[in-house]
From TrEMBL, chain A:
This is ABC transporter ATP-binding protein. It comes from Streptomyces phyllanthi. Gene3D superfamilies: P-loop containing nucleotide triphosphate hydrolases (3.40.50.300). One of its GO terms (molecular function) is ATP hydrolysis activity. Pfam families: ABC_tran, BCA_ABC_TP_C. SMART domains: AAA. The keyword Electron transport does not apply. Residues 257-270 have a biased composition (Acidic residues). The keyword DNA-binding does not apply.
Automatic annotation (TrEMBL), chain B:
It comes from the Bacteria. Keywords: Cell membrane, Membrane, Transmembrane, Transmembrane helix. Residues 1-22 have a biased composition (Basic and acidic residues). It is found in: Cell membrane. This is Branched-chain amino acid ABC transporter permease. It is a multi-pass membrane protein. The chain crosses the membrane at residues 57-79, 85-104, 111-129, 135-154, 161-182, 202-227, 254-275, 295-319, 331-351. Signal peptide: none annotated. Pfam families: BPD_transp_2. Residues 1-51 are annotated as: Disordered.
Length: 284, 372
């Protein structure tokens, strides 16, 4: 069976800097695939290149075996590949219902009809309400999006994305900036997603990643460091070194413990990589 | 005299809305009744949606009745001034469709207004005095002109779009000013009075007014339908977040081009109506000033609402044509002051004074009902 999404040597460079460097990745239908990696690993660039927001400098993206590398974002969305944004990207001055209905009416091919009022397209309206129901927003259909909380906006994004009837949904750090309760609600929502839906998720919160993902790919300096089931990734030594337990996370804090720093210095290879990585962080 | 009716109209509307507000307040103590407790949020919502609907219908009937009755009580001069306002309001509706609904502020609509007007005069002089044929010809030519020039403009957004439409407007104005076939800077005169259904010429100002009123109401209804339709939703989506539209699989450029043509057609009808009333058209009626006043009407009335900009159009023309003479030609000063006042005091324009606040109240009430 052809995998739903396949990346072959996908490369994206900014000038002389290669943010994504020859990434090969295969995601079968129905898989929950998580993409993790330290800051500056190229996750967001890879994500945007797959979604079509950025153009690839090399390699190819295949959706259900078809090469879509040269297609613009809108055409990829029409083929069932949709993304969410790191910061909620919604139609703030429209009602909650309108937001989801915009997705539904495109799928139903009535987006350019003006012979009847929108609410007379009963099929479209009912479908939009159903999606809002399943995202837990049925009480707020008439409200403007600008009146929603951060967590509710995230729920609305999920409803909107599912309303396009996608085969692949790509979430870009969906739980960023959420409270613990909001994250919990969001993960529950993700767990309820239909079985046959393929999900690619970029996420910083490793608890969320290990709960949701069937398979995890670790990106480091634009390359795939490891790819496998969560349990294997947790114990993978290279990953440990590059990401999970080494100096990388502690680097974020100014007052890192001296002992750990010494340990990190002992690992010369990692240290050399860290130098390049500081450069990779720039364009993100 | 005419100003009074205008004021009456507004007062009428305000009174209607006041009544509505009262109903909203009056409805609030209702929840203690046994019914709402059992009521599902769904049925509460439909009941809430039904009431504003009836309310709106009452307002529409009252306004239409008042507008229809105007020639019966007013003398010809104010009636012809109101005719001009209606024709201008049609242009403004088109500008609002672009600016308020789609988020494309345009300064080029006067060009299509002019194209429609010249078409109507030429049809009137050379072909037929039939008002319907002229209006249709104006519509078609406005549409064609917008279709020919629009594809350049819709590639841009924001300020660049504004500048491109300004360039289109000025170019067309320049052509009208120099082209002898349309009378150059002297304009086109000698248009015979219009007829309807092959009947006698509509010489009385009242009859022309009624004809213009009917067409303006039709245009208003048509644009209102577009705004409520799925296409209107698409346009609002483009206004709010075009990148997201693309991510949902839309091709926004196509929808933008469509609405530009639509707005051109609406402006063409407005121009035809204007010409039929004045029976004369010159480049001065389609210059930058007209385009700017149309945009100003939208801002004053409240972009995105439809009746607000129509009121704005009436106000702007009233100040320019009527009030200006009695205050020593300082009309533009008054308009400027009104503009500044609107921007600072009511960012949603005239429409925000009533509709918005009303909706807020209704929304708050609905939420309260749902949570209880």
């Amino acid at each position: 069976m052809t995998p739903l999404l396949e990346l072959r040597g996908l490369t994206r460079s900014y000038g002389s800097l290669t943010a994504v460097d020859g990434v090969d990745l295969t995601i079968p239908r129905g898989e929950r695939h998580a993409l993790i990696g330290p800051n500056g690993a190229g996750k967001s660039t890879l994500f945007a290149t797959v979604a079509g927001t950025l153009r690839a400098s090399g390699g190819s993206v295949l959706l259900s075996g078809q090469d879509i590398t040269s297609l613009p974002e809108a055409d990829r969305a029409r083929r069932g590949m949709v993304r969410t944004y790191q910061h909620s990207s919604l139609f703030l001055d429209c009602s909650v219902l309108d937001n989801v209905a915009l997705a539904v009416q495109r799928v139903h091919r009535v987006a350019h009809r003006f012979d009847r009022a929108a609410r007379r397209f009963r099929h479209t309206e009912a479908e939009a309400r159903r999606h809002l129901d399943s995202a837990g927003l049925s009480g707020r259909t008439g409200d403007k999006v600008s009146a929603l909380s951060h967590g509710e906006r995230r729920q609305l994004e999920v409803a909107m994305v599912l309303a396009t009837e996608p085969s692949l949904v790509m979430f870009d750090e969906p739980t960023a900036g959420m409270s613990a309760a909001e994250t919990e609600r969001f993960v529950a929502l993700m767990e309820r997603l239909p079985e046959d839906l393929t999900v690619l998720i970029v996420e910083h919160d490793l608890d969320v990643v290990f709960r949701l993902a069937d398979r995890v790919t670790v990106l480091h300096l634009g390359r795939v460091l490891a790819s496998g089931p969560p349990a294997a990734i947790r114990t993978d030594e290279a990953v440990q070194r590059a990401y999970l337990g080494s100096a990388r996370t502690e680097d974020l804090f100014a007052e890192a413990e001296a002992g750990i720093e010494a340990e990190a210095e002992a690992e010369a290879g990692t240290e050399a990589e860290a130098g390049t990585e500081a450069g990779t962080g720039g364009p993100r | 005299m005419r100003a009074e009716t205008e004021k009456e109209k507004e007062q009428e509307k305000e009174q209607e809305q006041e009544k509505d507000t009262v109903t909203v307040h009056g409805g609030t103590p209702a929840p203690p009744d046994p019914a709402p407790v059992v009521e599902a949020p769904d049925s509460a919502a439909t009941a809430g949606a039904d009431r504003p609907h009836r309310r709106r219908a009452a307002v529409v009937v009252a306004v239409v009745a008042l507008l229809t009755a105007a020639p019966l009580v007013l003398s010809p001069y104010p009636v012809s001034a109101m005719t001009r306002m209606l024709a201008f309001a049609v242009l403004v509706i088109g500008v609002d469709l672009l600016t308020g609904v789609t988020g494309l502020p345009s300064l080029g609509q006067a060009a299509y207004f002019g194209v429609g007007a010249y078409t109507a005069v030429l049809v009137g002089v050379h072909i037929t005095p039939d008002a319907m044929v002229q209006a249709l010809a104006g519509l078609v030519m406005g549409l064609v002109a917008a279709a020919v020039t629009g594809w350049v403009a819709v590639r841009a957004r924001g300020i660049v779009f504004l500048m491109l439409t300004l360039a289109i407007g000025e170019s067309v104005h320049q052509v009208a000013d120099t082209w002898s076939a349309v009378g150059g800077s002297n304009g086109l005169a000698g248009m015979p009075p219009v007829t309807l259904f092959g009947g006698p010429a509509l010489l009385a100002a009242g009859f022309v007014y009624w004809w213009v009123l009917v067409v303006a109401a039709l245009v208003f209804a048509a644009v209102a339908l577009v705004v409520r339709s799925p296409y209107g939703r698409t346009l609002r989506g483009i206004r709010d977040n075009e990148a997201r539209m693309r991510a949902l699989g839309y091709r926004p450029a196509l929808a933008r081009y469509g609405v530009f043509c639509l707005a051109g057609a609406v402006a063409g009808v407005g121009g035809a109506l204007w010409a039929q009333q004045a029976r004369f058209f010159s480049p001065g009626d389609m210059g930058f000033e007209v385009a700017a006043l149309a945009l100003l009407s939208v801002v004053i009335g409240g972009a995105g609402s439809l009746w607000g900009p129509c009121l704005g159009a009436a106000l702007v023309l009233f100040v320019r044509d009527n009030l200006s003479a009695s205050i020593g030609g300082h009309g533009p000063l008054v308009l400027g002051a009104v503009f500044v006042a609107v921007v600072f005091l009511m960012p949603r324009g005239l429409a925000g004074l009533t509709g918005g606040r009303l909706r807020e109240l209704a929304g708050a009430r609905r939420r309260k009902e749902n949570s209880s």
